[in-house]
Design a protein that fits this description.
Helix content: under 10%
Strand order of the largest sheet: 1-2-3-4
Order of helices and strands: EEEEEEEEEEE
Shape: elongated
Mean pLDDT: 74
Number of domains: 2
Distance between the termini: 57 Å
Strand content: 15-25%
Radius of gyration: 27 Å
Number of strands: 11
Structural class: mainly beta
Length: about 160
Amino acid sequence: MGPAGSSSSASYNPSQAANYQPGQVVIGLDGSAYMVVRGNPAGAPGSSADYKPLTGATGPTGPTGASAAAAFFDSAKTSSYQPGQMVIGPDGTIYTINKVNPSGTPGTSSDYTPIAGPGRIARDEGSAVATYNPVDAMGYRPGQLIVSNGKLDVKALLDF
């Protein structure tokens, strides 16, 4: 069992270090968490044995991942598209991108795979994607994909 100590945590502050107690958690200047090993610790977290690392140092920021929202296809932005990202093609179909820097346009290139097609929705007919229209809104089915203001939404389950 570890030493009894403060259960609080604090961002490292050299002027307060003399008050740190064994077992207290301190967030170092590198963003990592450290446990104080002895009272009145010397040095700073990350460079002194008086602080035990609880997590690894923060690594470099990774690349931006695919967005969960579908954006309208823009031929000027294809160099920034990533595999798995979704775009809404000129025909209103939602496509997933298959490769980095895809060529062609959705619907004509194998670099895009259709995942949901367009269509008007009503209570008695089904369609995967609809462009938002307030007149049709009460007819959208629960789980219906709706394109509105360039973003993809899913209609919540609201049956009256």
